[in-house]
Write a structure and sequence with these properties.
2 domains, 150 residues, mainly beta, Chitinase A, domain 3, Thrombin, subunit H, 5-stranded antiparallel β-sheet
Length: 150
């Protein structure tokens, strides 16, 4: 990170390894982030730091530099009665506690009175393909520079 952090604003199109569209900022506001604050994944931040306003690039981010590899230890069966949610279906996501840092889990299967939950990030284990365009690069404000990495 440079001595004076910068805020970089960019548009992106995110696809998985098969080319399926996962997310995009196109059609909306571009996304700002302040370097070194952990606001975006490191595998995307590093190339963006080397880009100038108006520059476009394709960035491929391996799982290790995105949301990590899939961890089988984060997949568990639990009794349905232990869950804070009554109406469940496969694909549902919910936070496991009231604290904002409590894990978010995804319902992978429902088998009788047991539910298979996955606490991996939904994009864990995936190679991510970004098409990015830097819209603006400027010095970060003091408030932006104070954002703490979680």
């Amino acid at each position: 990170m440079s001595a004076a952090p910068r805020t970089i604003t960019f548009h992106y199109i995110l696809k998985d390894g098969t080319g399926r569209l996962l997310d995009t900022s196109r059609g909306g506001a571009p996304m700002p982030f302040t370097e070194g604050t952990g606001q975006i994944i490191e595998g995307l931040e590093e190339p963006l730091l080397r880009m100038a306003a108006g520059e476009k690039r394709t960035v491929v981010v391996p799982p290790e530099r995105a949301y990590g590899v899939h961890d089988a230890n984060l997949v568990q069966k639990v009794k349905r009665a232990r869950l804070p949610v009554d109406d469940l279906k496969v694909g549902d996501q919910f936070q496991t506690g009231p604290d904002r840092s409590a894990p978010i889990v995804t319902v992978k299967a429902i088998e009788g009175d047991e539910v298979l939950l996955d606490a991996n990030h939904p994009l864990a284990g995936q190679e991510l393909h970004f098409e990015v365009e830097v819209v603006a690069v400027r010095a970060a404000t003091p408030e932006e520079s104070q954002v703490v990495r979680e």
